[in-house]
Amino acid sequence: MLTQAIRGGFVEAILTAIEMTGTVDQKHQLQLDGLLPITGPTRVRVIVLYPLAEDISETEWLQTADQNSAFAYLRETTEDIYSVTDGKPFHDDQA
């Protein structure tokens, strides 16, 4: 349900999310697998989630993470708290 409230002189919209599945056809149009539980006509916002065309290798993921500024803090010396001599080796005897 979409409702509006006035707070501090601004109109604030409260949105409700609905998850549905569908198919994008050859004309690049979205065809839903079912009916929406809302009456129209009304404007809606749509977020489309779809699988990547190709699998991304672990190397590509690591390179992307390495270049992302969100992980820059991991390069700080205060984050380097382990050494090669920490812990004990793990050997999986059940494999």
Walkthrough of the structure:
A two-stranded antiparallel sheet has the order 1-2. The protein has about 100 residues and is an alpha+beta fold. Helices cover about 10% and strands about 15% of the residues. It contains 1 helix and 4 strands; from the N terminus they run E-E-E-E-H. The mean pLDDT is about 85. A hairpin with a 2-residue loop joins strand 1 (about 5) and strand 2 (about 10-15). The chain is elongated, with a radius of gyration of 24 Å.
Order of helices and strands: EEEEH
Question: What's the pLDDT, averaged over the residues?
Answer: 83
Distance between the termini: 53 Å
Q: Which of globular, elongated, flat, extended, rod-shaped describes the shape?
A: elongated
Work out the helicity level. 10-25%
Read across the widest sheet, the strand sequence of neighbours is 1-2
**What can be said about the biggest beta sheet?**
2 strands, antiparallel
Note the beta-strand portion: 15-25%
Helix-strand makeup class: alpha+beta
Radius of gyration: 24 Å
The tally of strands reads 4
Unreliable residue runs = none
Number of helices: 1
Summarize the structure.
The protein is 11% helix and 17% strand. It is built from one helix and four strands.
SSE layout and pairings?
Blueprint: E1 3-7, E2 10-14, E3 22-24, E4 30-32, H1 58-67
Antiparallel strand pairs: 1-2, 3-4
